[in-house]
Amino acid sequence: MIMEYLDKWSYLAVFVLSVLPWVESAIVAFFAVMLGLNPVASGILAFLGNWLVVVLVVFLFDKLNVWRNRRKGAALNEEADSKKRKRAYHIFVKYGLPGLAIIGPLFIGTEIAAAFAMAFKAPRGAVMFWMTTALVFWTVVACVAAYFGIDAVGLIRGTV
């Protein structure tokens, strides 16, 4: 009876845990698979939980940037930008943003990486694309590693 109860609520716990800041979807998915939950369902729920927080962070930072630009006068800021600053910005968006998205979850967390990208005024669409790509990548890697790592010792299929 207790196991049936835990089975029903385990997937909800995967989702809720991945929504929490500083808890990455890859870590939640890894432990969920280790505990015997379905790797596909765990991965999808962990991804969705973390992704919703990233969407919220990007949306809020975008609204903050719009408000700040409206308040300061965006036209004055754009004219004051030098060629070097514009070039550095384009290099960041082209190369730094993908690196921040892929490596950020390992060191600072996905939410913080998204906040940094938006603080550096990267385009919202590019931030969402790269953060989503990184979340999918790390969640799939964690699920596959957990499934095949545990399956190699026969714990999932019960062949020990």
UniProtKB/TrEMBL annotation:
What InterPro entries does the record tag this protein with?
Sm_multidrug_ex
Name of the molecule in the record? Small multi-drug export protein
Entry-linked Pfam families: Sm_multidrug_ex
Which residue windows are transmembrane per the record? 12-34, 40-61, 92-120, 126-150
Q: Which UniProt keywords apply?
A: Membrane, Transmembrane, Transmembrane helix
**Keyword presence, Transmembrane helix:** yes
